[in-house]
Write a structure and sequence with these properties.
Elements: H1 13-23, E1 26-32, E2 42-48, E3 50-51, E4 57-62, H2 66-73, E5 76-83, E6 94-104, H3 108-117, E7 130-143, E8 149-153, H4 154-157, H5 164-180, H6 182-192, E9 201-206, E10 209-214, E11 217-222, H7 230-252
Antiparallel strand pairs: 1-2, 1-5, 3-4, 4-7, 5-6, 6-7, 7-8, 9-10, 10-11
Length: 253
């Protein structure tokens, strides 16, 4: 997780949170137990997460699970995102707790976004007890290393914009990149992110970046500047593939 902006200045806390959250595919969900004899106790569970365009976390969870029963009684939850994996000293890495209220979201768009992020969930997504839930963020607590500790409200976390034209075009952009530009996706992974292997696929694109997946490995390409529509997305993706290929050519030399 980078902690500086493109210009080298310290990254704004809200930007750090968005980068961390959008790069993650799992989090610890904390709910208040509804179970007899343990009611009110905090309960943490590992969940798969996706992120909508406005940064709202998306969860596909079963009504049979304890955490789903818990939120039926108390919708206030917390999600802990851990960006410290691989750090020599984990306490220097970034992590954030998002606080919000969770509710069912039966719209097709967010559901498609979750399933693109987690293709294995297709196996059970159609079961009658599974439903998509959205967390409406109200606050966040960011620890991004020693001395970088911030409480932020929802306004400080919001992305610069949620371009409706890009939201609508996302499925077509993703399908086009996966069908016609697989080589570009591998170039992003290799040249921009230092990842190995071939067969990388795009799972989503938003105003601030795009998400890649290869088997069980995920990666995030952050854009140097936000985009606002499909044409800007195309220009950005072309620009980045040129950068990626130049980086690979330089490394080969």
């Amino acid at each position: 997780m980078a902690e500086t902006s493109q210009a080298g200045a310290p990254e704004a806390p809200g930007s750090t949170v968005r980068r961390l959250v959008r790069a993650a595919d799992r989090a610890v969900l904390s709910t208040s137990l509804a179970r007899d004899g343990l009611a009110g106790w905090p309960y943490g569970s590992l969940v798969l997460v996706a992120t909508d365009h406005d940064l709202s976390p998306l969860l596909l969870i079963s009504q049979l699970a304890d955490h789903t029963r818990n939120i039926a009684r108390e919708p206030r939850v917390s999600l802990l995102y851990d960006g410290t994996v691989g750090a020599v000293d984990p306490l220097t890495g970034a992590r954030v707790s998002l606080l919000g209220r969770v509710a069912r979201d039966d719209r097709a768009g967010p559901r498609a976004r979750f399933l693109a992020r987690h293709p294995s969930a297709e196996r059970y997504a159609g079961f009658g007890d599974f439903h998509l839930y959205r967390v409406a963020i109200e606050a966040a607590h960011l620890v991004a290393g020693f001395g970088r500790i911030h409480w932020l409200d929802a306004a400080e976390l919001a992305p610069p914009a949620v371009p409706e034209a890009l939201v609508v075009a996302e499925p077509d952009i993703v399908a086009h990149m996966n069908q016609d530009h697989a080589d570009a996706l591998d170039a992003y992974a290799h040249g921009l992110l230092g990842r190995a292997g071939t067969g990388w696929r795009m799972t989503g694109i938003d105003a601030e970046g795009c998400d890649l997946r290869r088997a069980g490995e995920i990666a995030r390409v952050d854009f140097p500047a936000p985009i606002g529509d499909p044409e800007a997305a195309r220009a950005m993706l072309v620009r980045l593939v040129k950068q990626a290929r130049a980086a690979l050519a330089g490394g080969a030399g």
